[in-house]
Amino acid sequence: MRRMSRKDSYPGLPFLKMHGLGNDFVIVDTRGESRAITPALAQALGDRHRGVGFDQLAVVESGTDTDLELTFWNADGSTAGACGNATRCIARREMELTGNHRITLRTERGILEAVDEGSGLTSVNMGQPVMSWQGIPLKGACDTLHLPIDGAPVATGMGNPHCTFFVDDADEVNLEKLGAKFEHHPLFPERTNVQFAHVIGADHLRMRVWERGVGVTLASGSSSCAVAVAAARRGLTGRKVRLTLDGGEIAIDWRDDGVWMTGPTAHVFSGELTPAFLDSLK
């Protein structure tokens, strides 16, 4: 991704607004920039009334052993270890600018590979799921396939913790109430993303998601991976599924080399944060 141009006389901070299935992001390319992203800046940017608004803020840096290095922030100013849809958005943009059809990106999750699948679709290998209680992490030893929580959800790590409930009808769930409740469940010392899902048909799931530090979102890449892994572990589906989210459909394929996620992305607009906005946060 090349730095967005700007006039030297207007020292703001350029950004992109992108989304994957309505899961929306502000993307800041700091290559060549000296400005550091702070929790206060992330929180101010995430305000949909006084800032720009996003589900996650993604910060792009030059990679040492990869094409790019990514850091993710939530709208409440906390950091996120992984963000699958933002990774796909950034990979799509970089591949369009460089002409490459395959790139690598380093996140807290590790080195991820992205591939241009054509027809506007981008795939990212989100790595192998974590299924041990220590790695997710959970507060103590327990069966991650049937957590000792009402509803017996599944716990999965995809660079961040996930708690997946399989229900009769995900659309009937009070997501705002239950998502907020289980995000802060004491079994998850780092909080958790929360999903509610049901089986629509053969290898087809309906999913709704509450993201930690954000709230209800139209889609979530890492959550989609976690739900697909949980469904396969429970024997509800195979390892290659499609998920219908509030924002659209995404395809997940749990292969031997990791969990691959494939879907569309959109670049909505480019903008620039004003010096006055940035100065107000000092």
Please tell me about this protein's structure:
The chain has two domains: 13-126 and 265-279, Diaminopimelate Epimerase, Chain A, domain 1 (Roll), CATH 3.10.310; 154-256, Roll (Diaminopimelate Epimerase, Chain A, domain 1). 18% of the residues lie in helices and 39% in strands. The protein is built from five helices and 17 strands. The chain has helices spanning 39-46, 84-98, 175-183, 221-234, 275-279; strands at 13-20, 23-29, 56-62, 68-74, 79-80, 102-107, 110-118, 121-125, 154-157, 161-166, 193-201, 204-211, 215-217, 240-245, 248-255, 258-264, 266-273. It has a 17-stranded mixed beta sheet that branches. Strand 9 (154-157) and strand 10 form a beta hairpin. The protein is globular, with a radius of gyration of 18 Å.
Attribute tags:
Diaminopimelate Epimerase, Chain A, domain 1, 17-stranded mixed beta sheet, single chain, 282 residues, 17 strands, 39% strand, alpha+beta
